[in-house]
Amino acid sequence: TERNMANFTTMNGFLLVGFSAKPELEILCASLFLVLYLVALTGNILIITVTSMDDSLYSPMYFFLKHLSFLDICYISVTVPRSICNSFMHTRSISLWECILQCWAFTLCGSAEVAMLTVMSYDRYVAICLPLRYEIIMNANTCIHGILAVWISGVISGVMHTSATFSIHFCGANIIHQFFCEVPQLLKLACSNEYVSELGVTGFLSLLAFLCFLSIGFSYTHIFSTVLRIPSAKGRAKAFSTCLPHLAVVTLFLSTGAFEFLKPHSDSPTALDFLLTLFYAVLPPTLNPMIYSLRNKAMKAALKKVVKRRRAYFFC
């Protein structure tokens, strides 16, 4: 019964709400998630493989793209496989420590993703606005320091968010109206006003994310201003084809994530909650490989070379 379930979660963890109360629809949604997960894994692994094997892609842009793909694999693997297993096994329970670990890893990857997209926008800014100084500014040390900053900021954000969230006491049935341990949904279970400290952390991290957004906006304002002054139509098209996919990913990820975290949450789950979570937690890691590979001629050429090598190896 609901009361027994509530007692169980109070002692041992939480209950995650599935996609649907109907078993057939639940399996259908889980199958869709499985397809998206496999597409994300395949695409990101391909990008990591191609950028590692092809000498023509040894540049800061593809160095950051390779690390973005690795980050995307981690990001989507934190939540989706567990939700797929829950749906197929018809179980909803998640232990307290699993929830803590999931919350920390998801916050880490989400914060690192914002930082990575900011670093990548700076790389594009230097490449297009300061081309003569590109190799000097974006040298090996700059790239390594950029990646270190991305992961360190992610770890710090994850620790801060998770510590603040799980320092509060939870009341009621401990039922999370989401397919993973999402912070806004956890805060709805807080006793009285104990979530005030977590709101402070959320506000601080939101400010950092907003500064990243401003930095990305600054970079692209200068990029588009420079691109529009290029006399060659072909040159303008090439620059836009490199930058617009990145801007599309940034807009999708930041806008849906910000709206989901900042909008008022109702006591009962809505289709909008699940849809927004899908847009910022599942789609970016799935779409990134498609956007970057389909719109990038160098990536497509390198991918063809890798495929030819593999075919020659197997036939030999």
UniProtKB/TrEMBL annotation:
<dbReference type="InterPro" id="IPR000725">
    <property type="entry name" value="Olfact_rcpt"/>
</dbReference>
<keyword id="KW-0716">Sensory transduction</keyword>
<dbReference type="GO" id="GO:0004984">
    <property type="term" value="F:olfactory receptor activity"/>
</dbReference>
<feature type="transmembrane region" description="Helical">
    <location>
        <begin position="104"/>
        <end position="122"/>
    </location>
</feature>
<feature type="domain" description="G-protein coupled receptors family 1 profile">
    <location>
        <begin position="43"/>
        <end position="292"/>
    </location>
</feature>
<feature type="transmembrane region" description="Helical">
    <location>
        <begin position="143"/>
        <end position="160"/>
    </location>
</feature>
<dbReference type="InterPro" id="IPR000276">
    <property type="entry name" value="GPCR_Rhodpsn"/>
</dbReference>
<comment type="function">
    <text>Putative odorant or sperm cell receptor.</text>
</comment>
<keyword id="KW-1133">Transmembrane helix</keyword>
<feature type="transmembrane region" description="Helical">
    <location>
        <begin position="274"/>
        <end position="294"/>
    </location>
</feature>
<keyword id="KW-0552">Olfaction</keyword>
<comment type="similarity">
    <text>Belongs to the G-protein coupled receptor 1 family.</text>
</comment>
<dbReference type="GO" id="GO:0005886">
    <property type="term" value="C:plasma membrane"/>
</dbReference>
<keyword id="KW-0472">Membrane</keyword>
<keyword id="KW-0812">Transmembrane</keyword>
<dbReference type="Pfam" id="PF13853">
    <property type="entry name" value="7tm_4"/>
</dbReference>
<feature type="transmembrane region" description="Helical">
    <location>
        <begin position="204"/>
        <end position="228"/>
    </location>
</feature>
<keyword id="KW-0297">G-protein coupled receptor</keyword>
<keyword id="KW-0807">Transducer</keyword>
<dbReference type="GO" id="GO:0004930">
    <property type="term" value="F:G protein-coupled receptor activity"/>
</dbReference>
<feature type="transmembrane region" description="Helical">
    <location>
        <begin position="240"/>
        <end position="262"/>
    </location>
</feature>
<dbReference type="InterPro" id="IPR050516">
    <property type="entry name" value="Olfactory_GPCR"/>
</dbReference>
<comment type="function">
    <text>Odorant receptor.</text>
</comment>
<protein>
    <recommendedName>
        <fullName>Olfactory receptor</fullName>
    </recommendedName>
</protein>
<dbReference type="InterPro" id="IPR017452">
    <property type="entry name" value="GPCR_Rhodpsn_7TM"/>
</dbReference>
<feature type="transmembrane region" description="Helical">
    <location>
        <begin position="25"/>
        <end position="51"/>
    </location>
</feature>
<keyword id="KW-0675">Receptor</keyword>
<keyword id="KW-1003">Cell membrane</keyword>
